[in-house]
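Course assignment 3, question 2. Fill in each field.
Student: A.L.
Task: Predict the tertiary structure for the chain below.
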Amino acid sequence: MSNVEQDPRELVCAAGEPVRELVTGHQVALGGPRAMTVTRTLPAVGRRMVGAWCFVDHYGPETTAMSVPPHPHTGLQTVTWLVSGEVVHRDSLGSLQLVRPGQLNLMTAGRGISHSERSPEMELHGVQLWVALPDHARQVPPGFEHHADLPVARGASYEATVLMGAFDGVRSPAGAYTPLVGAEVSVDGLAELPLAPGFEHAVLTLTGSLTVDETALPVGPLLYLGQGRSSVPVSGRGRLLLIGGEPFEEQIVMWWNFVGRSHEEIEAFRKEWSEGALFGTVADGDPLPAPALPTARLKPRGRVR
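Answer field:
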């Protein structure tokens, strides 16, 4: 179950101590009056990050149209991965890219970028993830990568497409700034997935019926597995998303579409989006206005709340 305490204590997991923590997430509407609905499992009440992964939205399968107008990002990478459907990405660098299932769109915001995502009405099913950039890399120039052919790792009863980082000795060509892993794993039967003991990991079922480390994991919740595991048993038939990485020890501020380090920095990003030229322009309709800042000051927080 999720942690619904109003005043939760910090969860401290000792290195090397595997855990099984189910994060149920919450429903979020994206894109205005005819918004599509996503299930957001990161950030959650008790857990904000898994490695450098700081945001996980899962949507579909649903017949809908994606219509996310131009909006800004800083201090992060966006990862678009589809199970079905297709999405058109446009950004302020001039990129125009259609992404389909089995292909990766990776956008590095760095010091600032803007983009839009659109699709006609069709069956859409996929995930949108963010990776927080470490302090030494968060001012890098913005960039965009599209990878149509990703490497695949194969083992007994599983096949894993490696989106980012490395899994089972197979490395993705996608750019990353911290040690991490992102993979879509197809399982048919009983599989033992190899893991890096120094990483913390989490899994999300995308399709089918799967049991992970004796925990039934339906489509929807995220199962946090902690650190210290060299492998995890998975049984059943379906596809899951595996994310992980070295614990991200820097404190960050996440607000709207920005990742920063202080209230003042987020305030400056918002002002720049509303009035300046830092984020460039995207020729795809009216940009999304920034919401009002909260009345309370935004505070840097660690990977657990």
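Instructor remarks: Confidence is low (pLDDT under 50) at residues 1-16. The domain at 21-245 is CATH 2.60.120.10 (Jelly Rolls).
Grade: pending
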